[in-house]
Design a protein that fits this description.
By secondary structure, this protein is α+β, with helices and mostly antiparallel strands. It has 17 helices and 20 strands. The chain has an 8-stranded mixed β-sheet with strand order 5-4-3-6-2-1-7-10, with helices on one face. Strands 11-12-15-13-14 form a 5-stranded mixed β-sheet, with helices on both faces. It has a 5-stranded mixed β-sheet with strand order 16-18-17-20-19, sandwiched between helices. A hairpin with a 6-residue loop joins strand 3 and strand 4. Helix 10 crosses helix 15 and helix 16 runs antiparallel to helix 17. The termini are far apart. 31% of the residues are buried. The protein binds adenosine-5'-diphosphate (ADP) and magnesium ion. Magnesium ion binds next to helix 2. Belongs to the heat shock protein 90 family. It comes from Aegilops tauschii subsp. strangulata. It holds the Pfam family HATPase_c_3.
């Protein structure tokens, strides 16, 4: 707890983002389960989040009508730090301290439920699961290392379903219990929550009321007694009252028109949704129509992904009619070798209770997959065409090996992958070249794309075979990653030029070179010996 509090000290407002995102997760779970079990909503169809503040006492309550927790779930989820988002956070924190990553990372990272203690002395979680008859209250104080669980008995505090968090703020943090403060933070952090978030706000309206004017003496004509006349006048007053106010925009960003969404909004959505701290390298927002209709936003991250065999990538979030379905796929919706690409996909054509089996069998999913892949490649091609060569170099550094894997796994898309590959070359100095660049600088009579594999750049450059091709001015690709050669072998050819390994003994070029070089050397010798005239004939035959 100490570690969390200290590392997040200047960033403590993240507590609200974390707690709202837990509420949103709980609502997502309920909405998803209710598709097959509508009974779950019998205690109220509303799915929303309500935040109330009591500034005099420094208390914030956050109530969601989500899935709630049973007693056991309370113990399992909140009783131990080990299984929570907080644990992941602590792990990253330890790693990042070594790497000395700036505190922005911390601000962007999922900190989890325990962030409530950044600002609270005491936290109470009162929760009712549809699976349980009782409502339970979990309570803990920041100072102590233990918690209590009791049944909720106060009838005033019973909720039909969901979870109510009560934060008893620390003395110095009571400022968070102001409605305007909460509203401002929500605008900042939670604009992409797809459930309505209401805040309890003081409102006012103006009203015209009749009030008595000061009684004035009014002279009357004649000699009668002066009369007192009371005149009425109207006055505008402000009437105050409290009510719930919708605080976020619930229209998902992917349903909006691309022209109307700013780059900042795309980037924010990406960072929020995928827990990333760097802006993406590229994004693509599109709608497909026709046979299958769906909307999607895809992103190429800027952070390196190491493990190309990782199957639990959770990189594509599937929604059906705006309901979050799953992000747990294994190649059904998006090929594994493109798992570094992240994104959301929303379809109206799939059933809400879509299962793994349905996904595997579905023709619709096959079409979606095809389109998504195409769009992903367009997006990557976009980076490679960028004015700034560094952009694609960064991309290649991070994800090059994924594309090489694609050469092996996805024959159908060889045409799209091949132009994106990059290699070292005998004619460029440490700079990577594309196959297009290679083909462009081929000699007119050159038939094939030549390559040589080596353990390192220097060993490839010093290969004995290379010398001959250098002499002829033929460029040679230097393959120093074992995956390079495998991917070229899989591609087989590029623009009708086959790939040829110059170290293979049967390289027919090798023979020519030897004979040519031999003859040229003899000719040179002859020239030096002044046999010019006689050698001319032989020379021209050779050329
Ligand atoms: P994470 O959200 O990454 O799982 P957290 O520390 O934020 O980690 O939360 C831990 C767990 O507590 C959640 O996974 C969830 O099971 C449970 N939980 C937290 N808040 C709620 C809530 N409002 N409704 C239901 N369950 C919740
Ligand atoms: Mg969480």
């Amino acid at each position: 707890m100490d570690l969390i509090v200290h590392s997040l000290y200047s960033n403590k407002e993240v507590f609200l983002r974390e707690l709202v995102s837990n509420a949103s997760d709980a609502l997502d779970k309920l909405r998803y389960l209710s598709v097959t079990d509508p009974d779950l909503l019998k205690d109220g169809p509303e799915l929303d989040i309500r935040i109330q503040t009591d500034k005099d006492n420094g208390i914030i309550t956050i109530t969601d009508s989500g899935i709630g927790m049973t007693r056991q779930e309370l113990v399992d989820s909140l009783g131990t730090i080990a299984s929570s988002g907080t644990a992941k956070f602590l792990k990253t924190l330890k790693e990042s301290q070594e790497a000395n990553v700036d505190s922005n990372l911390i601000g962007q990272f999922g900190v989890g439920f325990y962030s409530a203690f950044l600002v609270s002395d005491k936290v109470a979680v009162s929760t009712k699961s549809p699976k349980s008859e009782q409502q339970y209250v979990w309570e803990a104080e920041a100072e102590s290392n233990s918690y209590t669980i009791r049944e909720e008995t106060d009838p005033e505090k019973l909720i039909p379903r969901g979870t109510r968090l009560t934060l008893y703020l620390k003395r110095d943090d009571k400022g968070f219990a102001h409605p305007e403060r909460i509203q401002k933070l929500l605008k900042n952090y939670s604009q992409f929550v797809s459930f309505p978030i209401y805040t309890w706000q003081e409102k006012g309206f103006t009203k015209e009321v009749e009030v008595d004017e000061d009684p004035a003496e009014v002279k009357t004509e004649g000699d009668g007694e002066p009369k007192k006349e009371v005149k009425k006048k109207t006055k505008t007053v402000v009437e105050k009252y409290w009510d719930w106010e919708l605080t976020n925009e619930t229209q998902p960003i992917w349903l909006r028109t691309p022209k109307e969404v700013s780059t900042e909004e795309y980037n924010e959505f990406y960072k929020k949704t995928f827990n990333e701290y760097l802006d993406p390298l590229a994004s693509s927002h599109f709608t497909t129509e026709g046979e299958v209709e769906f909307r999607s936003i895809l992103y190429v991250p800027a952070t390196k992904k190491e493990d190309i065999t990782d199957r639990k990538t959770k990189n594509i979030r599937l929604y059906v009619k705006r309901v979050f379905i799953s992000d747990d796929f294994d190649g059904e919706l998006f090929p594994r070798y493109l798992s570094f690409v992240k994104g959301v996909v929303d379809s109206n054509d799939l059933p809400l209770n879509v299962s793994r089996e349905i996904l595997q069998e579905s023709r619709i999913v096959r079409i979606m997959r095809k389109r998504l892949v195409r769009k992903a490649f367009d997006m990557i091609l976009g980076i490679s065409c960028s004015e700034n060569r560094d952009d694609y170099e960064a991309f290649w550094e991070n994800y090059g090996k994924f594309l090489k894997l694609g050469c092996m796994e996805d024959k159908e898309n060889h045409k799209r992958i091949a132009p994106l590959l990059r290699f070292f070359s005998s004619q460029s100095n440490e700079e990577l070249i594309s196959l297009d660049e290679y083909v462009e600088s081929m000699k007119p009579e050159q038939k094939a794309i030549y390559y040589i594999a080596g353990d390192s750049l220097s060993s490839a450059k010093n290969a004995p075979f290379l010398e001959k091709l250098n002499e002829m001015g033929y460029e040679v690709l230097l393959l120093i990653d074992p995956m390079d050669e495998v991917s070229l072998t899989n591609l087989n050819s590029y623009k009708d030029k086959s790939f040829v390994d110059i170290s293979k003994e049967d390289l027919d070029l090798g023979m020519h070179v030897n004979i040519r070089t031999l003859f040229l050397n003899i000719l040179l010798l002859l020239t030096e010996l002044n046999f010019e005239n006689r050698s001319c004939g032989a020379y021209s035959i050779l050329m």
